[in-house]
Amino acid sequence: MSGSAEQAAGGGMTEYIHHHLHNLQWHVGAGPFWVIDIDTVGVTLVLMAIFLGMFIPAARRATAGVPGRFQAFIEMVVVGIDEMVRETFHGSSKLIAPLALTIFVLVFMMNFMDLVPVDLLPWLGRAAGLPYLRVVPTADLNTTVGMALTVFVLIQYFGLKHKGPRLFFKEMFTAPFHAHGLMVIVLAPVNFLLRLIEEAVRPVSLSLRLFGNMFAGELIFILIATMTLSASLAHGLTYVMGPVQLLSDFVWTAFHILIITLQAFIFMMLTVVYLSMAAEQH
Amino acid sequence: MNINLTLIIQGLAFFAVVLLVMKYGWPAFMAAIEERQKRIAEGLAAAERARAELRDADARVAEEIKAARHQAAEIIDRAQHQANLLLDKAREDAIAEMQRHKAAAETEIAAATVRAREELSMRVGELVLAGASKILQREVDASTHRQMLDELAAEI
Q1: Which of B2, B18, B39 is the mutation pick for testing A, counting most A CBs within 10 A?
Q2: Which residue does chain B place closest to A77, by CA atoms?
Q3: How many CB atoms within 10 Å of residue A34?
Q4: In whole angstroms, what is the distance from residue B133 CA to residue B140 CA?
C-alpha cells in the first residue's frame, strides 16, 4: 500500500478515500452528463477484449472430436449455462443463452478487479501519470445501469418478438388483472400502471444490487487499507495494525470471492428469468 | 459517481459483446457439443450392435461345432462298422483258403498212400522172388522156410 498511501497521507484518511472513489474523467462537453469515466470504460474494454480474445478463437477452433483442456473448460461453462437456460426458458432462442454467458463472464471479470490489491493499479496509474484510477467497473453506477438498460431493451424486444405486437401491447392493459365487459376499461389504467412499475423496477433492482455490492466491497477494501495509512516503523501501533490489516484483508478477500461470483450469477439468472417472463403469455 | 455519458458507452459496449458472442462464439460451441453428442450416441449404438452380432456369431459357431462333432461321431461309427465288415470278410476268406489247402493236402496224402501200397506190394513180390531163388540154391529147410514165408505173408 505504501506508495499511494504515503502520497495520499497528506490529506489524511478522508482525502485517501475520496481520492480512491474518484473516477478518471474526461469532460467532453458542458454539464455534468457529458463526462466519460475513462478508467471504467478502459478497464471494461480491456476485460471485454480478453474475454472475446479467448472465447471467439476458441469457438473457431472448437472441434467435435476430443476437446483440448481449454475447450473443455469453456464447454463446461457453456453447457452449464445452456442447461440452466433450458430449465428456465422453455422455448428456443438464439439470444438468451449467449446473453446469459456474456453477462456472467463479463460481470464476473469486472467484479474480479475488486480482488486486485486496492492500491496496486492506482499506484501504477500514478506512475503512468494518471491522477485518478478506479479499476472496478461494476462499482461505477454507470456500468451497472448501462448493462441493466441494455437488458431492459432486450426484454422489451424479446417480448415483442415472441408475442407479436398486438398481444404485446394488449397485455399492457389486460394483465395482471383480467376482466370482462366494462371492467376491462376500468382496470386498464391500473394494469398499465402496474406494468410500468414492474418494468421500471427491473433495471433499477438489477443495477443497484450489483452496484451496491461492489461499491460496498470496494469501500471495505479501502477502509482496510486505511488501517496503516500513516504508519511508520517508529510507531508501536503499526505492529498491531499491520497483522490486523493482513488478517482482515485476507478474510474480506476470501469472502468477496463468494460475493463477486454470486452477484454475477444473480445478474445472469435474473436476466434469464425476466426474458423468459417477457416471452410468456399472461 | 454521477450518471453520465459512461452509461451509454458501457451499455453499447456490453450489447456489442453480446452480439459478438451470439454470432461468432456460442453457436460454434453448441454445434461442436451437439455433434460430439451425436457421435458418442452413434458410437454407443454401433458398439451395442457389434456386441449383438458377436453374440449371434458365437451362437452360430457353437451350433456349427456341435453339428461337426455329431458328423464326426457318425463318420467314426460308419468307419468302425466298415472295418468290422472287412475283418469278418477277411476271416471268412482265410478260413475258406485254409479248408481248400487242407482238402488238397488230404487228397494228396490219399494218393501217396495208394501209390506206396502199390509199390510195396510190387516190392514184396520181388523180395519173395529173390528170397525164393536164394532158398532154392541152398539145402531147403522146410521148417525154416515155412517160418520165413509165414512172416512175409504177415508183413504183407
Answers
A1: B18
A2: B29
A3: 12
A4: 11
Where residue A12 falls (left for φ over 0; alpha for ψ -120 to 50; beta otherwise) is: left
Nearest to A64 among B1, B24, B35 (CB): B35
Chain B: residue nearest A137 by CA? B10
SS (H, E, C) A37-80: EHHHHHHHHHHHHHHHHHHHHHHHHCCCCCCCHHHHHHHHHHHH
The predicted model scores a pTM of 0.74
Cβ distance A8 to A15 under 8 Å? Answer: yes
The helix (run of H) or strand (run of E) holding residue A85 is helix A69-88
How far is the CA of B109 from the CAs of A182, B94, B113, B117, in angstroms? 153, 22, 6, 12
Measured over the CA atoms of residue A118, residue A119, residue A123 and residue A124, the dihedral's sign is negative
Give the pLDDT of chain A (282 residues) as one tens digit per residue. Answer: 344 444 444 567 888 888 888 888 888 888 888 888 888 899 999 999 999 999 999 988 888 888 889 889 999 999 999 999 999 888 788 889 999 999 999 999 999 999 988 888 888 888 888 888 888 899 888 999 999 999 999 999 998 988 888 888 888 888 777 777 777 788 888 888 998 999 999 999 999 999 999 999 999 998 898 888 777 787 888 888 888 999 999 999 999 999 999 999 999 999 999 999 888 876
A213 is catalytic: yes
Mutate which of A150, A204, A218 to disrupt the B interface (most B C-beta within 10 Å)?
Answer: A150
**Which positions in chain B touch A19 (Cβ < 8 Å)?**
none
Question: In the structure grid, which three cell numbers stand for residue B58, read together?
Answer: 458365437
| Residue appearing with cell numbers 394483465 | A175
Stretch (H or E) spanning B55: helix B26-137
Does the annotation mark A209 as catalytic?
A: yes
Among candidate residues A142, A195, A209, A248, the one labeled active-site is: A209
The three three-digit cell numbers of residue A183, written as one number: 371492467
Contact yes or no for B5 and A106 at CB 8 A: no
Active site residue A230: no
Indicate the SS3 state at residue A164.
Answer: coil
Residue with grid cell 476485460, as numbered in its chain: A47
Give the closest of B10, B11, B26 to A101, CB-based.
Answer: B26
ipTM for the predicted complex: 0.87
From A96's Cα to the closest Cα of chain B, the distance in A is 9
